[in-house]
Amino acid sequence: MPPGERTAPALCHALARLVEVRRSGFADLRDHPLAERHWAAQSLLPGFDRCEIEGEGYPGAVYACRGHPEGAFDPVSLEPAYARLARDIDLCLAAPVWYPLRWQRGESFVFARGERQISWRLRERLPTPMVTLKLEEDLSGAGWYLRLAVETLH
Fold it and tell me: Which of 61, 84, 86, 153 ranks highest by number of CB atoms within 10 Å?
């Protein structure tokens, strides 16, 4: 199932788990090493694969996955999936499970050539978890993809 297509319940569970394990540098999700302080990772996010963890400890580690819908050769083709996934993330992070914590959605940024980014963070003192959704160009020439990451803002 491509990212952003009816994934809200599984996505909400995955985001809660990722926010929980970020304090360990996502150690439980590490698979084989790709480079120093860089691992392949288990995919918890529905519709996403090619997950990686960069950094080995709190608060510096980042868990990020790519979603590769078929035929994504320009950013316009991914805009509907990007918008659906952003809506799903909004719903997940507004759920009562987070009470009394409240997530704040940042501005949506549009970059050169159509790349986009939205970030959400908890309204509390730093360091705080951050969820980031990006629509990015694959610089290897393989088209465009969605990237969803959980990290700690510090």
Answer: 61
pLDDT tens-digit profile, the chain (154 residues): 444 444 578 999 999 999 999 989 999 999 999 999 999 998 888 888 889 999 988 888 999 999 866 556 778 888 999 999 999 999 999 998 888 889 999 998 988 877 899 999 988 777 889 999 999 988 877 788 999 999 987 7
Distance from C-alpha of 71 to C-alpha of 88, rounded to nearest angstrom? 22
The domain tally of the chain equals: 1
Distance CA 107, CA 132 (A): 11
Whether residue 144 is contained in a domain is answered as no
**∠ CA(33), CA(18), CA(137), 5° rounding?**
65
- Domain membership flag for residue 145: no
Contact assessment for residue 131 and residue 150, using Cβ atoms and an 8 Å cutoff: yes
